[in-house]
Amino acid sequence: MKKFAVVAAMATALLGSTAVNAADVEVIHWWTSGGEQAAVSVFAREFDALGEDKWVDTAIAGGENARSATLQRTLGGDPPGAAQFNISRQFEELAEAGLLLDLTPLATEEGWKDFIRPAAILNVCEFEGKIYCVPVNIHSWQWAWASVPAFEKAGVELPKNLDDFIAAAPKLQEAGIIPFAIGGEAWQIGGAMGVVMLSQLGKEGHEAIYKDRNLDVAGGPEVKHAIEIFKSLKGLTDEGSANRTWNDTTNLVIQDQAALQIMGDWARGEFAVAGEKPGVDYACIAGPAEQPYLDTGGDIFLFPKQDDPAVEAAQLKMASMMVNPQVQALFNNAKGSLPVRDDVDMSLADDCMKVGLEILKDPDHVIQGAGIYLTQDSIGQLDDLWAEAWANPDLSVEEIQQRFVDIIASAE
């Protein structure tokens, strides 16, 4: 396979005829769990293999902390060479201030718009007609992760949907297995509830509520049943869930102590690091529903402007490397996410990645997350509602649903 030949030519063309030397590129990110570290190591290894330039790793726990550090340093005149952000408009302050490297010439030369899909994730990188970041993956929340040995021990089949799972839960409990594993952090609870809601609403109902603000659907039977499932799941958790991290929770499934966890596809990286095999040691259940849908969140990298032309040349090499088809397959297989291009080497993809890629082929089964339609304030109100409903068993289904309707009615 031709390896990044375009990049060297692009770097030379963009920087003129001036010779440049090797450079260190500091990269800020928040990938600190075992699976995340394995994934970011793919990027570091592949970048270092391009030549004398070096990836300098700066891992900062917590996305908000890492983004804040990037903003403060870049605005303060001490920018890193590259930084991870979410697929969002979080970086626009830097673009507006003229502090980011314009990747448009590179993206045009390599045809990013021809192979990055869905188009919406590259559109996020555009500001005033120029491209300032590179999407590296597609993350979706809509997955359940099941311990195959746990279900076998209990003598029940893997569930096809959440109603099946709840029906099987008593046998799991009788076998000494935690039926439902979750951590007590608000984002884990809110994320799980979003998955439960979508599993009952489907794409049409999801858009009716979050995009169109349809209060009849928000107050309808599908939402009611989603809340009933949500309350049932709380009764299937263990006492240690209160302050547990997501990856420690995933480890309960890996150790066959818990039967099932609802978590985004980044959990797959933890199974990979543990040497677990999909279909043998664990199952990835899309949806979890018989007609699964996936949203298209994920991560981007941006490149703050540098005074050193050698660093700028290395930044362009790094951006190109991140969307190379082989690197996309290797990185996303380790990360648990899906590649941003559909021409990756499928021999490098595991069974769970293949399931996700098949779903993405059908645009009718791809959705935009609620955060695309609602302001952060409205999302925060929903997160607060689900956290309170999780913590307070005395809140009735009817009261929870009415408060949900009220939030949607006033959402911006």
How would you describe this protein?
The protein is an alpha/beta fold and 412 residues long. It folds into two domains: 5-138 and 297-341, 3-Layer(aba) Sandwich (D-Maltodextrin-Binding Protein, domain 2); 143-295 and 362-410, Periplasmic binding protein-like II (D-Maltodextrin-Binding Protein, domain 2, 3-Layer(aba) Sandwich), CATH 3.40.190.10. It is 50% helix and 12% strand. The chain has 20 helices and 13 strands. Helix 2 (34-48) links the parallel strand 1 and strand 2. Helix 1 (5-15) runs antiparallel to helix 15 (309-322). It is globular and about 65 Å long. The chain starts with a helix and ends with a helix. The model is unreliable at 1-20 (pLDDT under 50).
Give a topology summary.
Blueprint: H1 5-15, E1 24-29, H2 34-48, E2 54-59, H3 63-75, E3 82-86, H4 92-96, H5 104-110, H6 112-115, H7 119-123, E4 126-127, E5 130-131, E6 133-135, E7 143-147, H8 148-154, H9 162-174, E8 178-181, H10 186-210, H11 215-218, H12 221-234, H13 246-254, E9 258-262, H14 267-273, E10 282-286, E11 294-295, E12 299-302, H15 309-322, H16 325-335, H17 351-360, E13 366-367, H18 370-373, H19 376-391, H20 397-410
Parallel strand pairs: 1-2, 1-3, 8-9, 11-13
Antiparallel strand pairs: 3-12, 4-5, 6-12, 7-9, 7-10
Helix pairs in contact: 1-5, 1-15, 2-14, 2-16, 8-9, 10-12, 10-19, 12-20, 19-20
Concise description?
By secondary structure, the protein is an alpha/beta fold. The protein has helices spanning 5-15, 34-48, 63-75, 92-96, 104-110, 112-115, 119-123, 148-154, 162-174, 186-210, 215-218, 221-234, 246-254, 267-273, 309-322, 325-335, 351-360, 370-373, 376-391, 397-410; strands at 24-29, 54-59, 82-86, 126-127, 130-131, 133-135, 143-147, 178-181, 258-262, 282-286, 294-295, 299-302, 366-367.
